[in-house]
Amino acid sequence: MKKMSVPERSWAFYDWANSAYSIVVVTAIFPLLFKSSATNAGIAASTSTAYWGYANSLAALLIAILAPLLGTLADFKGFKKRFFIFFVSLGVLFTMMLAVIPHEEWLILLICFIFTSIGFAGANIFYDAFLVDVTSSDRMHRISANGFALGYIGSTVPFIIGIALIILSQQAVIPLSVTVSSQAAIAITALWWGLFTIPMIKHVEQQYYVDRVPRPVTASFKKLLTTIKNIKAYRALFLFLLAYFFYIDGVNTVMTMATVFGTDLGLDSTSLLLVLFITQIVSAPLTILFGRLAERFNDKKMLLSGILIYIFICIYAYFIKTVVDFWVIAMMVASAQGGIQALSRSYYAKLIPKQSSNEFFGFYNIIGKFAAILGPVLVGITAQLTGNTSNGLFSLIILFIIGGILLLRVPDQGKPASPPTISV
């Protein structure tokens, strides 16, 4: 198998750039900072957990509303990279703001987090769609998996620095509070994200596109409406998106709620950060393995294997009591998280028409984001009503079961779907 080309490598390297945001801001350090801020303001643990879930859901809703139209508009020549740069800039800017806003302002922190999430998710629409521009169909599983693997490795650098600063602060080795150290880790993450996005901007170009028209926004609406009217005609795409809606909801919810869940169980921040760090390290080679196995065996079977692992995670999470239990769950997540995300992206990319990749990845993103609304809200409401987050996590099992059943019904891949013809 030949080495990655410069565009392939530059594309995959963006995962290296933005994945630090996922672990530091979404999963690890910022959630702890937010929980501390909310607790100091007199907010109960279960209530702040619910607020965190609601914030994630609101951000997901906003980007889901924008995604299809933005994706359709970005299919016109020269638009894709402009949208990508805008959303990256939005995410980096508001991530930096999280580092400078006073710790006491928990509500402002939560609002800024929503904007960081919009920037992150918005940029990913166009990043994912660039996969068809940088590689061939037979290499998509490998390149997609390599991207996620680079993300797991790259994200550990700001994460290690953040953990080191926090631990040294706790031990009074450096003259910084834990809060300031956490804010410094978030600032480093913002800089890391911005700096390592440069190769993507420099070397990746839109190869497949729709020629520009005099009224691109009007044309985008027409094209989007035509696709929506005919979406059921794309049987494989339609069934896959339904399956993806359910199983990725569970995956995203486990990711976004992991740290606050551990905090509610009474696990200390040092143990949580260490578990998350090791999870990142273990995930990298296992994600690459998923990509290799998808090339050797049936890619649908590998996706179903990931779903089965998550079903067991939901069952095990219901009985979690100790740090050892949390380690077990973390390693199970590490074995499947990157693989199921990478293969979902490349499996979908092989089904869609390349010249309409942004439009179809807009649908892919809206499905993922609407799915991300249900899980956190479910966990949040359950946490408030019962005072026990475990009940909500266990209920996620139904999402994986439904997703797996629908995935089994997706027809074998043939030629990519053809986009509808419209008059402008």
From TrEMBL:
Main subcellular location: membrane
UniProt-listed Pfam families: ATG22
Membrane-crossing segments per the record: 12-34, 54-76, 83-101, 107-127, 148-168, 174-196, 233-251, 271-290, 302-320, 326-348, 360-381, 393-410
Domain (Major facilitator superfamily (MFS) profile): residue spans on this chain: 1-415
InterPro entries for this protein: Atg22-like (IPR024671), ATG22/LtaA_families (IPR050495), MFS_dom (IPR020846), MFS_trans_sf (IPR036259)
This protein's UniProt keywords: Membrane, Transmembrane, Transmembrane helix, Transport
Localization: Cell membrane
Topological category with respect to the lipid bilayer: Multi-pass membrane protein
PANTHER family: AUTOPHAGY-RELATED PROTEIN 22
Protein known as: MFS transporter
